[in-house]
Amino acid sequence: MSNIDTSISPTPTSPLTNTDPIKPRIRTIRFGDCDIQTWYDAPFPEEYATMPDGRLWICEFCLKYMKSKFGAVRHRLKCKARHPPGDEIYRDSHVSVFEVDGRKNKIYCQNLCLLSKMFLDHKSLFYDVEPFLFYVITEVDEIGARFVGYFSKEKRSPKDYNVSCIMTLPVRQRQGWGNLLIDFSYLLSKKEKRIGSPEKPLSALGAIGYKKYWTFALMRFLHTAPDKPKLEGESMFWLFLHSS
């Protein structure tokens, strides 16, 4: 897919610019009840270059994108989705994770890639989603399972990569969701009996996110480890993951 990025990092400090006049300029997305300023361009159809005030409206359940508030309101009345497609594979109180197959739910996954491109500077894949699984983390309330973030991974990675792209919405940053996504990716690798790692090389923001995750993981392990821990071999690696 692409180098990974992580939304537990701050907003890029460089100004948002449009170097290609052919690409649509989307400066803001309306996602649920939030207006979110975009960081980067995404290859939406050219017709979306002339939207009123540059705002794109996105359904937080099915991820369909629309050009106007009128279209978004009409869609909301008709849309029956209340959670991502695919299988719910994890639930803990108000947190839920869905596994979405890029082959079975192609449109949803393509829309998800377009959404994430607006916040990931290195993302390059948008339409060839069939070889990937997408793990979407949501926050559940009385309305439904609201999108928070996701990570993707190849179904068959020759190098056992467990993350291709990872992103949480900017309005959900600094709340621990990024660490939870990374932790979940390693738990999946543990279940598959693989060590696993994110795609290399890491982007600058990706490196910050993983450094933060492993700093806390090491601190938790050392806090509960025996007096003379020996981090040698695969068995100790899984003990480390279990304790973290």
From TrEMBL:
It is found in: Nucleus. Its EC number is 2.3.1.48. Its main location: nucleus. Residues 1-22 are annotated as: Disordered. GO terms for molecular function: chromatin binding; histone acetyltransferase activity; transcription coregulator activity; zinc ion binding. Gene3D superfamilies: 3.40.630.30, N-acetyl transferase-like, Winged helix-like DNA-binding domain superfamily/Winged helix DNA-binding domain. Keywords: Acetylation, Chromatin regulator, Metal-binding, Nucleus, Transferase, Zinc, Zinc-finger. Residues 1-21 have a biased composition (Low complexity). The active site is at E199 (proton donor/acceptor). Belongs to the MYST (SAS/MOZ) family. This is Histone acetyltransferase. It comes from Amanita muscaria (strain Koide BX008).
